[in-house]
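Is this the right way to post structure tokens for a design question? Let me know if I should format differently. Anyway, here goes:
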């Protein structure tokens, strides 16, 4: 029976969200662009946006920790399979249209689709080392 290591999932989600934000800053999107957008669109302000953004990052890591053993492929690729599916389904086909950016953000430009995918790929790096226990985890761990 598989159980979730809640502490590791929460830490991986938190650190992944920080990496997501740092990479966005490096890409020139500003610090906390997503929390600012969440706060603006809900009318609840930046504090809510930050809380929602980090809560989402942590929730995704918990969901991944629960389904990781069911995913195919080596342990280091599983986070990328998970986050790519999540980004296409929930970001490209739900969130972007919801904020007026169109499917995959294409109303804004192709760089929106590419940038969002790359940011999410950077976000899952902690999953490999904290949830999956490294690139080549020992059998039984």
């Amino acid at each position: 029976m598989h159980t979730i290591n809640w502490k590791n999932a929460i830490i991986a989600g938190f650190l992944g969200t920080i990496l997501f934000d740092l990479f966005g800053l490096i890409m020139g999107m500003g610090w906390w662009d997503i929390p600012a957008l969440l706060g603006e669109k809900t009318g609840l302000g930046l504090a809510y946006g930050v809380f929602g953004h980090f809560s989402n990052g942590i929730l995704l890591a918990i969901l991944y920790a629960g389904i990781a053993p069911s995913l195919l492929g080596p342990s280091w690729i599983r986070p990328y399979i998970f986050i790519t599916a999540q980004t296409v389904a929930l970001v490209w086909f739900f969130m972007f249209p919801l904020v007026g950016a169109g499917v995959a953000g294409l109303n804004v430009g192709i760089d929106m689709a590419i940038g969002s995918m790359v940011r999410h790929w950077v976000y899952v790096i902690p999953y490999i080392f904290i949830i999956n226990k490294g690139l080549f985890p020992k059998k039984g761990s």
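Format looks fine. Someone answered above. Worth noting: The helical segments are 6-26, 33-42, 45-67, 78-98, 110-123, 125-131. The chain has one domain: 6-131.
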